[in-house]
Design brief:
The complex is a heterodimer of chains A (133) and B (97). Chain A is of the alpha+beta class. Chain A has helices spanning 12-25, 30-50, 103-111; strands spanning 2-6, 57-65, 68-75, 114-120, 123-131. In chain A, β2 and β3 (68-75) form a beta hairpin. The model of chain B has no long low-confidence stretch (mean pLDDT 95). Classes of the chains: A alpha+beta (133), B alpha/beta (97).
Chain lengths: 133, 97
């Protein structure tokens, strides 16, 4: 399934509704569902915050490929913005030094099986895969 | 949706989903906490970095006052997110659901 969403924080509820619908259609179990919800939320909200403008829409696709779910987010007519290459957060720091920036992407990296970025025809294309469990 | 109930004894009970759309309403409750507070996660199904951010900010502020958040009754999936974020080093988490 594939759907377009306006690139604004107000779209979050609609994005989750679409993700839940897609996961139910693929009989995803709770841990797969959690990881895909989290990945889509973190990636979408990062696009809203750090990659504004362009066509101002994000197309989200969730498809099954063998034993995996393949999730794509496409942000058209924007400058390159590669979240996969963001510096790792230092999770060993003490409370006073811990920051929330970068944590979302850290969670995505740890919770999905693959996380790729490519830039084509002025579109940022993020692909993640997660084994269906 | 996220529901936040503050009980008579001060315990904060979370239920639903603590995602980016809930930060404003959660801040309204957590910004008012001024003492050590138990936060019950029993009916919380989901938390993302946005929810973790609200808790981290609150813990930093309370810790400056000599207080803490005590997080209880997390389900396994939510607990895993805390572990991956290494927030188990930052928060006091009571094990067991």
């Amino acid at each position: 399934m594939k759907r377009r969403f306006t690139k604004t924080s107000g779209s979050i509820a609609d994005v989750f509704a679409f993700v839940d619908e897609s996961l139910a259609a693929q009989n995803a179990g709770p841990s797969t569902a959690y990881a895909v919800n989290l990945a889509v939320e973190e990636l979408f909200t990062n696009m809203v915050k750090y990659s504004p403008g362009g066509k101002n829409e994000v197309t989200i696709g969730i498809e099954k490929n063998g034993d995996r779910l393949v999730v794509t987010l496409v942000d058209e007519d924007v400058e390159p913005f590669d979240m996969t290459s963001r510096a790792e957060v230092d999770t060993s720091k003490r409370l006073e030094e811990r920051k929330i920036g970068g944590l979302g992407i850290h969670l995505v990296k740890q919770m999905v099986d693959e996380f790729h970025y490519r830039y084509e025809n002025r579109s940022s294309i993020i692909t993640i895969t997660k084994k269906l469990e | 949706m996220l529901a936040i109930v503050v009980k008579d004894d001060g315990e904060v009970v979370l239920s639903g989903r603590f995602d980016a759309s809930q930060v404003e309403s959660a801040d309204a409750v957590f910004d008012r906490l001024a003492t050590t507070t138990r936060v019950n996660f029993r009916d919380l199904d989901y938390i993302s970095s946005a929810g973790l951010g609200v808790l981290l900010k609150t813990q930093k502020r309370l810790s400056g006052l000599g207080h803490n958040l005590i997080l209880t009754h997390m389900n396994k999936l939510v607990r895993d997110v805390f572990r991956i974020a290494r927030f188990d080093l930052v928060f006091r988490i009571e094990e067991g659901t």
